[in-house]
């Protein structure tokens, strides 16, 4: 039996990128032989094993055929007579269909190295179309590699368009779609993900609500400028739901996030950002009561981890020309110095204590405004 490093690890090492995840393909082995060598089995559909020492995944070379919709119904055939080339041909892109032997030799039957050099994301074979998730994967790879000059081969884009226009995308599970979307939001050029989904008509199927943002070049550059995926998500939703009547906006955003199973961290930031971004961007025009209301509404006194994300989003919207970026953290710091114990020592208690705290907070907000006008 012979094990080869495959997929992303080979691609990234040839690109000179650090490799975090290493996947292996084993040719010429049976499941029983793997078990005898101490590998632990995982999964029930096809034979994948975990190396007893490294914990890395070793899959028996396999061919596969599709019988169902979406990401389901793959029929696997793994046996010692399946060759490395047969295993590699079922993979999505030529740059993901290379293998590396123990001695460092690259096995590259589908010209992945040529496509790496010409910066081309090209499908390996017509079997590409058996897996609709690949429309999202390729869009995500473009979001990662476009800054290095990569493009999608026209013939691959055509297959992606055909897949998106068939009913295959509707059969993808919500979790997989969200997983690809979230990963794409973390890549260096997430706008490319949205542009590609628009170009293939996949966006209208998977995220129709995001069309206004994806059609707006200003929003697309904004999401590239923000660095945190949650902030990018918030910027997209702010633009996408801008035309929704204000009283329905939060509800529609919640519905969108719930339907896509977005994690709470994404949903909550998006809700707060969509609700308060305008006020945040005009911070220096707010009066003391409005500043205090904003801080309390955003719950910043208790959840200050949101602050830096909100400020990141505002900085992008306002071209870094933000009074809020200096003022809000200072205000929060000052507000947090109000010590209820001191007020209690002065004799305040019950409702009166609450009022004294409110009054002290308002005074601090007013002091900040007075300080700004000096
Ligand atoms: N693969 C595929 N089609 C898919 C998923 C995976 O062809 N829908 C193949 C590709 O050869 C890919 C390999 O399986 O390189 C490993 O997949 P995965 O770990 O998901 O992706 P990576 O290519 O390693 O990319 P990433 O850096 O995003 O993890």
Automatic annotation (TrEMBL):
Superkingdom of source: Bacteria
tRNA nucleotidyltransferase/poly(A) polymerase RNA and SrmB- binding domain span: 149-210
Entry keywords, A to Z: ATP-binding, Magnesium, Metal-binding, Nucleotide-binding, Nucleotidyltransferase, RNA repair, RNA-binding, Transferase, tRNA processing
SUPFAM superfamilies: Nucleotidyltransferase, Poly A polymerase C-terminal region-like
Cofactors that this protein relies on: Mg(2+)
Entry's family note: Belongs to the tRNA nucleotidyltransferase/poly(A) polymerase family.
Name of the protein in its database record: CCA tRNA nucleotidyltransferase
